[in-house]
């Protein structure tokens, strides 16, 4: 479509350059900008054009254009608004979706821009109405309809306006009454209260009383009696009342019209397909309540102006002037439009370019205007964030039929592709301990094990009274939260479960389960030491990829292969993973293009391999849907411009982020519906309502109200106090409206965690990572102290390679749940003796109150001066995990003490001690080089008792939230 400056109204120059809303009012048949202070204020005698600009995660700008027609606007103004909308679309590059909005029948998308509602005012510019300022406060009666957005209409102030089906708001000078029809739903009543709050703030400066009146309540209630006095006294309403919009639009068969010379001509069709639409023409698709105008890419601006009026004339002839009219451009059709067709190709041959937008931008730039918003924006570069506290406790079970086996700590990050696993991760939340219970399905796992895993995980969640978040994860589709919980994650081929072995026998397949002495190739991937994976792939050359590093072992030979597109960080991950896969063997470095003959021989010879990085689908802009699920059928309604208040406690909602699917379940949802949450998610993936090619194996999270994890709440402006309120959604909202906010909660603030990604006071990556360097001869340079060498010698084979420095230590307030490995306990006393003898000055090795959790090689020992004991009470989280899972013996947390600096004293725990004034977070001369998450452990016993009023032993017997509260009070947090 050719565009010239004469086609562009000066009022539209520079429009749509940044996210937000812009509004123009039609004055003398021309658009005039409306100031932001008047946005949301519409007059019944006027017509308006509204532009909504949205910025996607990729940085691209999207536009939706609406033209709103007041019920008293003139025909000329309405026609001008329709034509100017086409011009505005041309100014934006000819790709915006255009909507016609008729007062009282607006689309939910339009109303969502002006939450909670719009209340049109009497008056207008060209219509001759005057905007009268009332001296006396006028009592008004409004009717409210809608569950997700509210249609508000002023009705005559009379008893005859009331009915049993709707909600009514009576606005008087000193009080606002909400009358709830007996047939109205809780959700509709709650949404209407948002309108009450709007009226209270807008017309009463937030200073007036609010009363809720229930339909059928008699005069015994004082506020009910006060309400009926305005209507001349109480009298029952008639059982059935006629509504203004009682005449509904009949369901009609979809019809297709071709617009020729401004007239709509019917097209006889057997079925509606994409092939019927010609790029040089215009078409009208009549679907009853919605009418679509399709504009070919090769049509001119003048032709589009003419075609836009054809739909209005068609609707007038069919006596349906209040239908929604949506105009779409070829190549940018909406999901709703495409869904009306029996077949729609995934991609068309239409060349969609930046030409139209670029030409407009060039024209505007010559006039000195900022055109940055019209050009394609570069996608923002953001480091992915897991949004979860990584200092919690992890337990993992392998599923074997109807049973599950708890894995030892050294094996809980080693999964097999033929098996299914259940994991439980408990971490400190904002006000309480949070739990994430998930299932992981290997690519080759059998259906029997998958069903069993879901069933057993469901029982664990039931025992936690549905307070845990549930996750379903497939191999190859793991989210970032999963990897940072496990930190070092390995996936082996084959499986260990009986179901998998039985499957191999039935299908007469060879068992290729991983063996230490066999041939195995691992692809190493990840973003850092807290998020790294080794995935076993087929040991053939075609499995290689220039964007990754690999580990190959065959018998006594170990190779590491680095692709030409890898970075030094990728190569460091290989070193760390090598310590887990083959810790006792020296490897040979193979650079892409300079491989040895032995390397290719093991892989069966050279062959072609890719270079593109493998990745999951990127997260897209989230969409929220309310849903109903009955008899296997799922019905969803999209909620536009959503916020936390849209989540009703009686309902189930779906948050679609494309790469992840969240099912939010309200507290007051019936039990049988709660149990359907996973089925709802699977149905949603199957239907793919937004036609975004959702994977059926995308991660699914079942989120319970009141226990929302931070990786869910980040999509909202979240107030946790709202989800902890009691009552249904109407009762909660009434409390907020009457009290001006949620009741205060006497809860301790969340501590600052040591977490991944730098979201809090976590140490820099360089501080948490091991230092590994490389030499040309592939001999890793080690930086180990004599003490560590003495210790390592106890556990190493003297003929083996020289091990790297210890794996990264993530300081955690809570130890990971551990199952003892008896085979590794025997040499402990000998190792301790070798270690202590190597120090210049022997120091007592004693247990630290808050242990450090060591994440890394399964061979890494934990040292103690005492023999390991099983704790009948479990871990320090007050045995919360053991209430829902089988008992597992735990190792007593132990650690190796650091050298004490000269001149410092040491308390009985083996740590240096400092004065209280230097340990405070507000200290003028704070102590450095300490573990800031446990400042209190550096106090002497005497000063500890003086400040806390108890001994250290008594302090650590307190619940965690009480300990945190005391630390905050003393500024030790």
TrEMBL record:
Its annotated compartments are: Cytoplasm, Cytoskeleton
* PROSITE patterns given in the database record: HP (PS51089)
One GO cellular component this record assigns the protein to is:
cytoskeleton
List all Polar residues biased stretches.
867-885
Q: Which InterPro entries match?
A: ADF-H/Gelsolin-like_dom_sf (IPR029006), Gelsolin-like_dom (IPR007123), Gelsolin-like_dom_sf (IPR036180), Villin/Gelsolin (IPR007122), Villin_headpiece (IPR003128), Villin_headpiece_dom_sf (IPR036886)
Record's compositionally biased regions (Basic and acidic residues):
887-903
Kindly list the biological process annotations in GO that this record carries. actin filament capping; actin filament organization; actin filament severing
**What's the domain of life for this entry?**
Eukaryota
- The UniProt record lists the HP domain at 908-973
Which keywords does this Swiss-Prot/TrEMBL entry list?
Actin capping, Actin-binding, Calcium, Cytoplasm, Cytoskeleton, Repeat
According to the UniProt entry, its GO molecular function terms are: actin filament binding
Q: Where is this region: Disordered?
A: 736-778, 855-918
What the entry lists under Gene3D superfamilies is as follows: Severin (3.40.20.10), Villin headpiece domain (1.10.950.10)
Q: Which PANTHER family match?
A: VILLIN (PTHR11977), VILLIN-4 (PTHR11977:SF138)
The record's family statement is: Belongs to the villin/gelsolin family.
**Can you say what this protein is called?**
HP domain-containing protein
Q: Which organism is it from?
A: Anisodus acutangulus
